[in-house]
Amino acid sequence: MATIKDIAEKANVSIGTVSRVLNYDSTLSVSDETRKKIFEVAEELSYKKRVIKKTATSKIAIIHWYTEKEELEDLYYMSIRFGIENRCQQLDVQVVNYFYDNIDEVKLEKIQGVIAVGKFSKIQVETMAEITDNLVFVDYCPDEDQYDSIIIDFEKATKKIIHYFIEKGHKSIGYIGGREKCKDSKEELEDTREKTFRSYMRELDLLDETHIYIGTFSVNDGYRIMKKAITEQKENLPTAFFAANDSIAIGCLRALHEENIPVPERVNIIGINDISVSKYIFPSLTTLKVYTELMGETAVDTLAERIDGRKIAKKIFIATELIKRNSSF
Predict the structure, then answer these.
(1) Which end of the chain, N or C, is more open, meaning fewer C-beta atoms within 10 Å of its C-beta?
(2) Cα–Cα distance for residue pair 138/26, rounded to 1 Å
(3) Secondary structure of residue 49 in the 3-state scheme
(4) CA–CA separation, 46 vs 43, rounded Å?
(5) Rounded to whole angstroms, how far apart are CA atoms 198 and 233?
(6) Quick check: helix, strand or coil at residue 117?
(7) Quick one: fold of 154-290?
(8) pLDDT (tens digit, 9 = 90+) per residue, 45-75?
């Protein structure tokens, strides 16, 4: 595993700056450019490159639903992008990046296909489909009969985390999640993790609605919501929390630390994703690893099949794995 010193040397910043950035220290004054550089170096050093024979040069577009600034708040999508770009480099494929608000500009590019990363509205999907028939979605499946998609089974992932907590003797289990919207819509998207948590905990006769908190998928909301939970629940604070992503979990850990609530002795925290910084924070985060780089690589390989002539849509699930660290027993 790469160390904080390795990241600092490659990013050309101090060890202290790297440590504080990776722990989302809110008191640190550092530019987004520096933060981005540190996160990308951490991701690069975590990535296991494969050496393969290159094919003929081609060109594809990645359309992101996140802005660059939003990507810094949720490294999940940065990691997917990293997997796409590295796979394209291995295959000698040129990549151009676009964001949700400039989809129309892709029409001006001479591309062979599009990889759409994130959640998109029906109108945005139709716009991309007009650009090319070679279209792959990552982390979203707008129509499994028409479009290729690379996704995670978040229902199975959620149950896996709940099972782990129960096996460790927890009965009071909380949930801190987020809601998302397509960029051109005010309607919130249904989140499978939240839906499954409610239904499965109810099935197990363990559901307590007062232990469910919803905000956004950010470090700041993880911090804010955990502070709220501590204030509201007091001695009834759950002994375990499932955080719907690692960014939320990192914010939760910071709030618990400030309130002198020991982790994992009093509260266990488990996140989802295993973003590159999860191993460097304190305490290191137990998380359900989503193989985001593999999602990106698989998207490129799937798009290559489309370009080669495949017409039948594919829906590909990528497996997850629980990575046990120090935020849970």
Answers:
(1) N
(2) 31
(3) coil
(4) 5
(5) 19
(6) strand
(7) Rossmann fold (3.40.50)
(8) 876 555 444 444 589 999 999 887 888 777 8
Burial of 139 (0-12, 13-18, 19+ CB in 10 A): buried
pLDDT, tens digit, 9 for 90 and up, residues 86-145: 999 999 999 999 988 788 888 888 899 999 999 999 999 999 999 999 999 999 999 999
The residue type found at 176 is I
Contacts of 106 (CB under 8 A, 6+ apart): 61, 63, 96, 98, 114, 128, 131
User: Which residue ranges make up each domain of the chain?
Assistant: 4-46, 154-290
Cβ atoms of residues 137 and 149 within 8 Å? yes
Within 10 angstroms of residue 265's Cβ, the number of other Cβ atoms is 9
Cβ-contact 242, 287 below 8 angstroms: no
- For residue 47, what is the enclosing H or E element? none
Amino acid at 194: E
Q: Find tokens 């290159």 and name the residue.
A: 54
How do the residues of the chain divide into helix, strand and coil, expressed in percent and rounded to 5? Answer: 45, 20, 35
Q: Contact at 8 Å (CB) between 129 and 103?
A: no
